[in-house]
Amino acid sequence: MKTTTPELVQYLTELHLPTVKGCFGEEADSARRASLSYEQYLHQVMERELEDRHQRRKERLLHESHLPLEKTLSAFDRTRLPQKVNTQYGVLLEGDFVTRRENVLAFGNPGSGKTHLLCALAYELTSQGHRVLFTTATVLVQELLRAKQEFRLVRALKRLVKYDVVLLDDLGYVQHTREEMEVLFTFLAERYERGTVMLTSNLPFSKWEAIFKDPMTTAAAIDRLVHHSIIIELNLPSYRLEHSRKAKDETRTTKERRKLKPPP
Description:
By secondary structure, this protein is an alpha/beta fold. The protein is 59% helix and 11% strand.
């Protein structure tokens, strides 16, 4: 028979131990049957509390990351990666670069898989307990520009500091005004050596002056990103194009087989 008391339930509520509150009676019955000591019983209920707490934290971190649901590690085809990049990626999955506040910069043609590559890495980082934020360069720039116009840019930048990793997708994909790029540079300068930036771009550094509009600003932005960074170059054909061609080939083959099949 489960033993509960209103006082104990209240204590566990006030101590914010929901798992213990839900399982202490069941675990007590089990401990009596197994003749466990008080210490062993306490160890079991606290172990369950800790496991549930870790799981809730992972779920919370994943929810606030805003990562695309479909871009996980299990959905990513690592066999497409060159051996050097695959080895490099395996080291990144350990997550030590976040502790060192190193950046990860992924370059490649549209459709090469750089966004999926970094999103899959970010998923693993959340499971390790790191706070991650996924956003596109366009969205972040617009949010920071609006904050600047409303005289709350400092507050907006402080909000971003709480994240261990900011994943900035598609830098350079859309051209922006000089004012927009000024707030982006401010973000990169504030982030420098304070937290990790993970970034994807279809433009090499040699073309970044088109992004930041000014040679000195471009050089300063690159300097802050490259210092303490890991650079991934995905010189791969478009995955989407390959997938589309494969689907068309399969459709064509199916039609040809149907034509060759003799009538009943």
